[in-house]
Amino acid sequence: MTAPTITIDYYVSMNSPWVYLGGQAFLNLVAKTGVTVRTKPTKFAEVFAATGGLPLPKRAPERQAYRLMELKRWRDRRGAPINIEPQYFPADETAGARAVIAAASQGYDAARLTLEIGREVWERDTNIAEEAVLATAAKRAEIPFKDINVKDGDHGHLDEVWEANTTEAIARGVFGAPSYVFDDGEIFWGQDRLSFVEAKLKALIS
């Protein structure tokens, strides 16, 4: 059963382990329901500053320790081979965000590209600031890298979209990644809420 008129805005960070952990489950849900996804890379440092969140290094030690425990739990639940303390985290996600925005603008599967970039950080322990790493991620996502590889000096419009996504996310009440937002404004924050996303989709489709 498909629901071509239902849209989810998918606010993501290239660095987020939670975006990575929930990425395949979300793609599976999208494939099952036929929902339309608008993938929106977002500057979560700005979102945190506007909504009372703290970047990881500034969180209390207890919160940082609990985060590692949760990553292990969800690694086991999802069966995802995550390295919970990767070498290149946090990476400069600028090039990755631009690539995802470029992919979305050309009709490619930007949600899948987001997952594949996440795999580079959390599975493959590579640096997503490097062009060759992004090219590998794009290949797995079945996206021609030449179509989305924007060179310095040609990225102004992509940066404008990235900033607009951030402004929009804050205005809509988003405060963490991943966030799944329906057209009626309902927000589901966190990959651990995908069962609720699925329930809402079933209700809308039925």
Low-confidence stretches are none
Which structural class is indicated by helix and strand composition?
alpha+beta
Find the count of extended strands (DSSP E, 2+ residues): 4
Helix-strand pattern, N to C? Answer: EHEHHHHHHHEEH
Helix content: 40-55%
- In whole angstroms, the N-to-C terminal distance is 9 Å
Search tags:
206 residues; alpha+beta; four-stranded mixed sheet; 9 helices; 4 strands
Task: Report what the structure shows.
The protein is an alpha+beta fold. It has helices at residues 17-33, 44-51, 61-78, 94-105, 110-122, 131-140, 145-148, 156-172, 194-205, and strands at 7-12, 36-41, 179-182, 187-189. It has a 4-stranded mixed sheet with strand order 2-1-3-4, sandwiched between helices. A hairpin with a 4-residue loop joins strand 3 and strand 4. The radius of gyration is 16 Å and the shape is globular. The termini are close together. The mean pLDDT is 95.
